[in-house]
């Protein structure tokens, strides 16, 4: 390619950038106008709702369906997510709590779902995330609920038993674990490896093969593991990209998870019900009588109505010894006529039924 051809292409790119700048600015001005209209129409004492999960899910899905390329659907959607996040911050910056400290996969999930313009606030424990949302100190919370290889996060499920809260969305995050060391680490003298218990479990085979005699120390989070390693000469940490960047650590080994498709699902919790989008999930908690065939009775209405169950978990009930509750996720929205009928049937047979929320299925 000649220098003249390159110059012409650069001029064209500059022209496109100017058009993009004007269009993004126009979109931002529209967001400001939306905020003005919403505030004008408020009834006295009513709180404005600026973030609409169903609206954002619809926009992202539409972008991916209409994407002409050459950028992939996910890359294009992520660009629009950041534009939407920044424009929403002009209306009202969202406060989002997550399981901290800074640099955890929970923070990465929060930023993936809401974009980088939100105010993300780390919490020391999952139940603290729930309490902040219930108290109204933050708009939303992001908590892990299940991993593709290690299963359910029981602490999160138990918190749903204790708090009245609404699930507003879900995030699926591809999890890559790296073995990280600090500037002072003597790589030939590593005697302990820090990480969260689930991450240690997700890398068990790799650790058995490469560091079979090194002590594995479970800590509160991968970010905490990275923080400890920063100042220790004989330790390493298993953590992700955000923690590595935050604490300035070096990757001694990359992508050491035992399963290449290792992913974690996070739930977005809040206090607002989400209208249908046409591609939704619903989560419920059900308590059944302790009798033979109870689980069968619970599942029959789903089967008879062709509703797809995506997850079912059992946890001990807080109401009595050897009694259990079922956490169930299924496709559809609680406002759908078919789902309504199924929920009514379950309500007739169950000791208790709690609908945790209906929310858009993860699009990214």
Automatic annotation (TrEMBL):
Range of residues in the leader sequence: none
Domain Prephenate dehydratase stretches: 95-271
InterPro entries for this protein: ACT-like_dom_sf, ACT_dom, Chor_mutase/pphenate_deHydtase, Chorismate_II_sf, CM_dom_sf, CM_II_prokaryot, G/b/e-P-prot_chorismate_mutase, Preph_deHydtase
Chorismate mutase domain residues: 1-95
Cell location: Cytoplasm
The EC number(s) this enzyme carries: 4.2.1.51, 5.4.99.5
Domain ACT: 283-360
Keywords: Amino-acid biosynthesis, Aromatic amino acid biosynthesis, Cytoplasm, Isomerase, Lyase, Multifunctional enzyme, Phenylalanine biosynthesis
A GO molecular function held by the record: prephenate dehydratase activity
Main location: cytoplasm
Entries under Pfam families matching the protein: ACT, CM_2, PDT
Reaction(s) this enzyme catalyzes, per UniProt: chorismate = prephenate; prephenate + H(+) = 3-phenylpyruvate + CO2 + H2O
Annotated function: Catalyzes the Claisen rearrangement of chorismate to prephenate and the decarboxylation/dehydration of prephenate to phenylpyruvate.
NCBIfam families xref list: CM_P2, PRK11898.1
Protein's recorded name: Bifunctional chorismate mutase/prephenate dehydratase
């Amino acid at each position: 390619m000649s220098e003249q051809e390159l110059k012409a292409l650069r001029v064209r790119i500059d022209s496109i950038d100017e058009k993009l700048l004007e269009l993004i600015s126009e979109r931002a001005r529209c967001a400001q106008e939306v905020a003005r209209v919403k505030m004008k129409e408020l009834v006295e004492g009513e709180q404005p709702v600026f973030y609409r999960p169903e609206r954002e899910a619809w926009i992202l899905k539409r972008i991916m369906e209409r994407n002409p390329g050459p950028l992939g659907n996910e890359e294009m959607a992520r660009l629009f997510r950041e534009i939407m996040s920044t424009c929403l911050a002009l209306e009202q910056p969202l406060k989002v709590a997550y399981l901290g400290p800074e640099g955890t996969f929970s923070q990465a999930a929060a930023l993936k779902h809401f974009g980088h313009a939100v105010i993300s606030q780390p919490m020391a424990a999952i139940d603290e995330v729930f309490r902040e949302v219930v108290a109204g100190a933050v708009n939303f919370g992001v908590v892990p609920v299940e991993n593709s290889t290690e299963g359910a996060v029981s602490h999160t499920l138990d918190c749903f038993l204790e708090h009245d809260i609404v699930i507003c969305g879900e995030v699926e995050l591809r999890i890559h674990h790296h073995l990280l060391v600090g500037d002072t680490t003597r790589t030939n003298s590593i005697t302990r490896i820090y990480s969260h218990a689930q991450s240690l479990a997700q890398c068990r085979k790799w650790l058995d093969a490469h560091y079979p005699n090194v002590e594995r120390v479970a800590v509160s989070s991968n970010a905490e593991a990275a923080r400890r390693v920063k100042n220790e000469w004989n330790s390493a940490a298993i953590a992700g990209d955000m923690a590595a960047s935050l604490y300035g650590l070096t990757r001694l080994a990359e992508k050491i998870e035992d399963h290449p498709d290792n992913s974690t699902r996070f739930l977005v919790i809040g206090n607002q019900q989400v209208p249908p989008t046409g591609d939704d999930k619903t989560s419920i908690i059900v308590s059944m009588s302790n009798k033979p065939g109870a689980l069968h009775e619970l599942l029959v209405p789903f089967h008879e109505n062709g509703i797809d169950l995506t997850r079912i978990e059992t946890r001990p009930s807080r109401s009595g010894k050897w009694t259990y509750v079922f956490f169930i996720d299924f496709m559809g929205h609680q406002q759908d006529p078919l789902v309504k009928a199924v929920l009514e049937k379950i309500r007739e047979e169950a000791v208790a039924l709690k609908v945790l929320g209906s929310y858009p299925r993860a699009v990214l």
